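REVIEWER CHECKLIST
Item 1: Sequence provided? yes
Item 2: Single chain? yes
Item 3: Sequence as submitted:
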Amino acid sequence: MDETINHLLVGCVFAWQVWTLVLQQLGLLQLAPQPTVTHFLGWWRRSTAAIPKEARKGLNSLIILVSWEIWKHRNICVFDNKRPSVQEVLRAINAEGGLWCSAEASKLQELVFRLLPSRA
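Item 4: Structure as written out by the authors:
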């Protein structure tokens, strides 16, 4: 299969695993791309339409963040001969997401804090 942006971000098993784990953590597993999804932009549009309007900017930020980290990880694997690691991508998403929230990405922060189960 050709490696297109659609394949890289939603069509391959690696990306599907990353999206599933990230969205599951936020209680949004129903938004994870299914194996039949072949177009990233269509999936993104359907996902944002499926949640309340006040959470859409946060979800958009999350989708951009996760896509960026998948893309960077893919480049590391291709150009630096590293092995793909879902856990490395999840760590990078967590670290970068924390930086985005510190830099006033308020809608991403609202999405994460509103959806994550409270840690009592």
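Item 5: Key structural point noted by reviewer: The chain has one domain: 5-115.
Item 6: Recommendation: ____
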